[in-house]
Amino acid sequence: MAERTVAWKPRGQNQLIGKKIPRIDGIDKASGAAKYSADINTPGTLFGKVLTCPHAHAKVVRLDLTAAEKMPGVRAVHAFAQVGQEVRYDGWPIAAVAAERPEIAEDALRAIKVKYEVLEHWVDEEDLEGAKQAGRTKDTRRRPKGDVDAAFQSAKAVHEGYYGLHTVTHCCLERHGSHAEWKGEKELNVHLSTQNVSGTAPQYAKALQLDAANVAINCEYIGGGFGSKFSVDQWDIACAIMAKKAGRPVRLLLDRATELKIAGNRPSVFAKIKVAADADGKVVAWDSYQWGTRGVGGGNVSLSVIPYLIDDVPNKRQRSVGIRTDCGSYRAWRAPNHPQGCYLTICALDDLAAKLGEDPLQFFLRNLDRISKEHLRQTFAGELKRAAELIGWKEKWHPRGQGGDGPIKRGLGLSMHTWPGRAHQANCTLRIYPDGTVESLQGSQDLGTGTRTVIAITVAETLGLPLSAVNVRIGSNKYPFARASGGSTTVGGVSGPNRRAALQALWKIFDLVAAKYEVDADSLEARGGKIWSNGKVVCSWKQAASLIGPMPLEFHGEGPKKDGLTSEDVGGVQMADVLVDTETGLIRINRFVAVQDCGLIIDELTARSQVMSGMTLGIAYALSEERIMDRKTGRFINADLENYKLPRIGDIGELVVEMYQPDSEYARGVVGLGEPPVISPGAAISNAVANAIGVRVPVLPLTPQRVLDALKGGVA
Amino acid sequence: MPAQQHSRQRGPSFSRRDFLKGSGAAVAATAIVTAPQEIDAAQESGPKVTSAEPTEVTLTVNGRNYRLKVEPRVTLLEVLRNDLNLTGAKEVCETTTCGACTVLIDGKATYACARLAIECEGQDIRTIESLRNGDQVDEVIAGFVKHDATQCGFCTPGFVMATKAFLAKHPKATLEDVRKGLGGNICRCGTYKGITECALELARKGGA
Questions:
Q1: I need a labelling partner for B170 at 20 to 30 A (CA). Which of A109, A587, B40, B182 fits?
Q2: Which of A245, A262, A279 is the last residue of a domain?
Q3: Which chain A residues are closer than 8 Å to B73 by Cβ?
Q4: Which residues of A touch B150 (CB under 8 A)?
């Protein structure tokens, strides 16, 4: 140990960082001991439920709550909607009740009398002409670059195609909601299923006219968020209001159907795309016209991701139409805009490669210099090469449509993605107690990425202690502030401050040890629960900690800082090997490979899990998952887990994950990982299907019906 | 509640099993002309629905007896979570689809949301909480943690219970067996690969 500068250890010296370490809260999760907001049962807790509107667009003409209010066992009723108000989609909250038992709450909802005047609606997200006629559209465009028409004229190959993705929901397994309990009139204690522990108290305070300091937010565990749980929702406020009215705690979670209808979704996009390559096989021109919906507010997928990744195209034109639909509003869905931009772009380029009669691997390798994030080009080259080895691209790839003689065809496809993933703002408090116990506190949360484990590894590695020596506290807004978990920002966000604070603590301990044992502080090193000097043990960690006196040592860590602990921008490559049954239209994933960089890896086990997570969600939206709106009634007709199809354990094939970890990646510091792996699956799987059957199935999810329709049409 | 309505709801008793077996109307019609004792004698042992009013029921959960009064429409899952505070079994789909509430009833993996509490009297109900005693955990739990088969963790207890029952029945399960046998549970985060590896490792050791 020499200079006192903040940095990660040299890679080879790590005892914990970069190893495959099981998560420290794994047993609590797997044994059911972990308490989620949905599990909070403080004495006297009432059960809240929400009544919603069954119409896509209507006016409330009568709302009578009296029968519900008078029902025995009902303790509070709350109205969201007012007479005369317009309600804008299926699932719009009308009223809520809190009762002694859930079944009584359900009876009370049935007793609420609502009359609607049903109004015209529009829910179709793909029918652009219809939406225009219904006056539901708004155009946006970017200033064109270069001379697009001339570039198409002189190009060697031009491809025109149609592509699209339907809306999917977040479908968190823990439904949105909270448990609210008052302490007197002015203090509120909430267990909220949230990705934003430190940021939600002010939202309660504003809605309920409280002091933000008097709102306690707790979220020890959250059953899925995926970008849909950043804010306090109106039903959470209603939960708190009813708790106050009843003088009792209330737990209110949306029912499953409402969860799917109104608690967040990923916008759809459909596009006509024209793309061209020059004589060298480089992309020279792009022209896209896209439309889709973000729900009742209109809008569409951002043009900033069109074309995606291979974006440094000399001639391009992008136009977009947002459709206002009477459907639940979008929320940030894991890697907002990117899965859609990636799908449209990479599929169109894959079709262009086919038009050139070329292996897409060669085509994409040649076009890496069209990636404007120059510093990632080499990473992509390395990842493409490695992924190709893992999937057996050289042996198994064949030109389109040569996927076998029988009815079952086999094909390979690839895709690439990028994501910033820079560390978010976060603070922590690190305490060393005189008995050697260590504690780290922050108002962060664990979406399932392993926040607690990452913090424990960082601190234990720094102090030379076993993982079990570090007590990690998250999930309360009374701990030091940390930003919301979104945008793949948390692992970098929490590891930086904890490394900084732990180094401060270590240096202080070294000074105390140096004085007591008369050794040079700069010679000291902490490893294996002991303090060492030049290869000899000076004292145990416990003895060292005893030197601090009766009070704990406390350090404050902040971040992000420009000290190299964290950075940004990752790439990532995925390749799929699929089987397509041309008689039934059924697709099976054979093997699905991901090669993913993310800078310095704190825990390889949980990092790999994030990649598998992205791939599995990707298989869902590529093959089966979609919101189906009934055009006539305007209702979300598959808002249940029976018909909103998610893959099960037998539906994902063999997932192969390799973390791309040359030393140059370690040197970059920590970069976020949660989002990138969910971006590519749609394109990789669709391209594999096109390779297998020789035609593009243009719209995701690739249901058997869409596969059969594409085979019937027979157009590439 | 008016007395008249009350007595109507109390009506004659019939077994839920018979009701489900054939025409409910036919069973009810028979019941009207038969004294209640006779019906009881004629019925196989099993829960009886006598009224929509709260009914006393004794449930044997994790080896302990709990005496409760619940309405017949209340599910086992609701009782476990809301009355017994055994919250390891999660409520997710509400439509007996996802397996997050899987418990063992007489050793068989069962969706707790698919059973009424009053149906389960006299049966051995085991919840996820029975697989842990302080620091001692069942090997399925340990296997899930080792293979990182948990992310947000909300589906995990149900998946652990399903895996426990599956391996008891198929101690030498193959990959294909796992893919079919654990298809009753849904994970949204994407932990299927870890679960598969965990189940196969335990199967190589001869089950769990």
A1: A587
A2: A262
A3: 103
A4: 23, 26, 29-30, 448
- Residue A611 and residue A486 share a domain: no
Provide the pairing of β-strand A426-432 with A587-596.
unpaired
Same domain, B10 and B66: no
- Are A367 and A514 members of one domain? no
Q: Which of A573, A594, A572, A583 is nearest to A653 (CA)?
A: A594
The minimum CA-CA distance between A319 and chain B, rounded to whole Å, is 34
Q: How many CB pairs (< 8 A) connect A and B?
A: 181
Instruction: Examine residue A1 and state whether it is found in any structural domain, yes or no.
Output: no
Angle at A619 between CA A670 and CA B156, to 5 degrees: 70
A121 neighbors A57 (Cβ within 8 angstroms) = yes
Contact B137 A27 (CB under 8 A): yes
Same domain, B125 and B136: no
Q: Which domain holds residue A542?
A: 11-31+423-559
DSSP conformation letters of A80-132: SS-TT-EE-STT-EEEEEEESSHHHHHHHHHH-EEEEEE------SS-HHHHH
Distance in Å, alpha carbon of A628 to nearest chain B alpha carbon: 18
Cis status of the peptide bond prior to A701, with omega within 30 of 0? yes
Q: What is the mean pLDDT of chain A?
A: 97
Mutate to test the interface with A, among B86, B148, B156, B174 (most CBs of A within 10 A): B148
Which chain B residue shows the shortest CA-CA distance from A256? B93
How many angstroms separate the CA atoms of A685 and A696, rounded?
A: 11
Sign, CA torsion A367/A370/A373/A375:
positive
pLDDT, one tens digit per residue, over A350-392 is 999 999 999 999 999 999 999 999 999 999 999 999 999 999 9
- Closest residue to A23, CB basis, from B74, B137, B148: B148
Q: What is the dihedral of CA A20, A651, A29, A437, to 10 degrees?
A: 10
How far apart are the C-alpha atoms of A439 and A445, rounded to whole Å?
16
ipTM of the prediction: 0.97
What is the rounded end-to-end Cα distance, in angstroms, of chain B? 52
Residues A108 and A187 in one domain: yes
| SS3 of residue A566 by DSSP | strand
Query: In this structure, are A190 and A215 located in the same domain?
Result: yes
The domain boundary residue, chosen from A559, A585, A603: A559
Cβ-nearest to B73 among A103, A171, A447: A103
| Beta bridge mates, B64 | B61
pLDDT mean over A516-527: 97
- Domain assignment present for residue A630? The answer is yes
CA distance A347 to chain B (A): 24
Average pLDDT value for residue range A258-271: 98
Measuring CA to CA, how many Å separate A408 from each of A414, A689, A711, B106?
A: 20, 11, 13, 43
Q: Residues A491-515: pLDDT tens digits?
A: 999 999 999 999 999 999 999 999 9
